[in-house]
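Homework help thread (please don't just give me the answer)

Our assignment gives two proteins as sequence + structure token strings and asks us to describe the second one. The first is just a warm-up. Here they are:
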Amino acid sequence: MSELQEETGDERVDAIVAGLGRLAELPVSEHVQVFEEAFSGLESTLAAVEEQ
């Protein structure tokens, strides 16, 4: 698996991506929830940018 880029240049996105780091500590059965949270956070961030 390739490594994730460390920074995106947007602090909000960086925080969301960093949250994916907890996947390694969780059972696979909990991964979907983590991905859903990340997706929701990225959607919200994108919507906020579009509103500006």
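The one we have to describe:
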Amino acid sequence: MKKYTLFAGMLLIAALLFGAGISEQAHFSDPTNAAYLEHYFQITIPSGGMDAKQFGNALASITGRPASMAGFPDIFKALVEAADLSQLALTYSTQKSGGRLAYYGITETVPAGLDRYVACALDAHLLPASTAKTLLTSQHLDSVTAANLLMSVANATGISRNYIGKVSDADILMRISNAFDGYTLFTDGYLDEIGAIAVKRRASTGYNLKKDSDDAQFLTSRTIQYGHSDETHLKQLVVLLNSEGIDAKLQIEPKVSIYEYLLDWGPVPPPSPYYMVLEFGENFYLAYAVEYDAKFEFDSHADLLKFDFLINTYAKKNDANQAKNSNVALLKGAWWQPLYSTTFQADEQAYKQIVDCALAENGYTIHPFSLLETKQNLIDTLQDLSGLEVHERPLYVNNAFYRYLTGSDYQ
């Protein structure tokens, strides 16, 4: 009996170690790495791979610092230096380096003086042990490995994606809760005033104020931006996606939504850290509300296309599902006109084009939306008021929000 128990325990340990290796390799080998490098860093990786000089030049494009590589054994030192870990690597003694390499199962010969850099790169998860083994025995860097290593450095230095986790993460609900703990009203002063005047002049119905530091920096061809105000709604939406077998990276970008407050809605409520109404000139009021844009970078284009159906089915109110005899269940906080968008035309049947006329300054950006036929008035107004360049960006919004903008239907 003890033999079987010991054998079962060994199998469990092996499974855990094997699973961890798969997880690390999967994280390292994101299939969108090459596309991301080209989109954000203008690095095009040759299909035949890279030599040492090409890889060094690509590293320099990411870090803005020269990367000296005479040959492929130098790649470990170059990776550590690019990730700003050089001083740490120098603390590795020969004994410690040997112990760490043994821990990762590295039995290949390591060139003199590089053992500390190989060990440090592995400890920093800049690459998995399987890739380290290959690099120690090969003089060729294939295109996939090159993309993975370059993205690993970009990730380590914080200049790539900015997100709280994936839909499939076991603790994603906790991460969402933790993120919402810090959301309150904020202002930049100057851009806020420009946006408010634009609303008062009827050049815009409202705008969103966001901090540039919260930008997800996702791959746009895989990303949908979903706006809402309710924390529980987002949690339910994330679990809904997971239940449908859809995975995506998630970033929550807090924003202050500003729009005209009509006294017909009732007396001006007392201010709170999350909502307030201010008088902006005689008999003109603006509401300031804490909301968020949830950015989803989907694992596949097919999953991105399913999003519209899921929102219309489970997160959108309409006359039919709001009728007294309706037995349709919706997510908490479902809206009549949900708002989600892409920066490319994903599906002509599901999305219509509008324009985001953004103004940016000192780490803040305001985003007033416009229909195509009214954009020039908004652009001219913003430029006249601010003297800043208006960044005109096409947006493709869901049909319900487009109907809301045009006033053609309330649902």
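TA reply:
I won't write it for you, but here's a hint about the kind of observation we're looking for: Residues 51 and 340 are 43 Å apart (CA to CA).
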